[in-house]
Amino acid sequence: MPAYNAEATLARTLSELDRNVVDEVVLVDDASTDETVALAGRLGLEPISHERNLGYGGNQKTCYRRALELGADIVVMVHPDYQYSPLLVPAMASMIAYGEYELVLGSRILAQSPIARGMPRYKYVANRFLTLAENIVLAQKLSEYHTGLRAFSRSLLAAVPFERNSDDFVFDNQILVQALAAGARIGELSCPTRYQAESSSINLRRSIWYGMGVLRTSAQYRLHKHRLRRYAYLDIDPARRLNPAPETSADAAKPAAEESEPARTAR
């Protein structure tokens, strides 16, 4: 749980986590100005507190670092502002536990109308535009890239150099393109969301800056993939890549041809 001023919603979010499935709850407070840390302690958590605000991406880095230290096999990020449903954590975790995916996204768009649930219309339009652009540039078919409800396998988090990502909101998109670079299989789950006064949100200026960062990240992935430019945060250790692409029939034929030549020579 990457937390910032979540005092009003933390207890409600925590109460909907199925503790028969969730072994550990990691809450990282990014220098909140309210009583988030004190409340977390009263609720039985052992929060990690940043002495200064490191940003949304910086908060996630601490969350994932700690989850890996605890030996978690599956890591689910849930915002403690109660915008995304904590009730979906078991379903998302099972999609990874059974080996179908390494990354699962809780989509606000899939099979529902986020506007009817309170998403500001300008945010919906921006979401649709950015998602279309990203699907084209990244050659994917996701319903959205901007959700704050995500589940990761341990192997994926260990494979991607997320520490190299931005400390700002574009971290979310950078870790997605890192997952693509690592060969991860990405699944989606329809997620009902709530837009309330207590839910966190960024202003218009920062939303525009975020959108520019999203487009830049997609372009960087394309350039890196085709070896036109190199970006360190997209360098994946070959030994940790997931699900290598299957060989084509032409590729499969090459080793056979190479092996047959020495055999003929031996004869």
Helix and strand arrangement:
Elements: E1 2-3, H1 10-15, E2 28-29, H2 36-42, E3 48-49, H3 56-69, E4 74-77, H4 89-97, E5 103-107, H5 121-138, E6 150-153, H6 154-159, H7 171-181, E7 186-190, H8 204-225, H9 249-266
Parallel strand pairs: 1-2, 2-3, 5-7
Antiparallel strand pairs: 4-6, 5-6
CATH first level = Alpha Beta
What best-fitting shape do the alpha-carbon axes yield? globular
Rg, Cα atoms, Å:
21 Å
Oligomer: single chain
Specify the CATH homologous superfamily. Answer: Spore Coat Polysaccharide Biosynthesis Protein SpsA, Chain A
Low-confidence residue ranges: 247-267
Helix content: 40-55%
Decide which structural class fits the backbone. alpha/beta
Q: N- to C-terminal separation?
A: 66 Å
Mean pLDDT: 89
Count of the domains: 1
CATH architecture: Alpha-Beta Complex
The tally of helices reads 9
Largest sheet, in brief, is:
4 strands, mixed
- Strand numbers in spatial order across the main sheet: 4-6-5-7
Q: Give the helices and strands as they follow along the chain.
A: EHEHEHEHEHEHHEHH
CATH fold descriptor: Spore Coat Polysaccharide Biosynthesis Protein SpsA, Chain A
Beta fraction: 5-15%
Strand segment count: 7
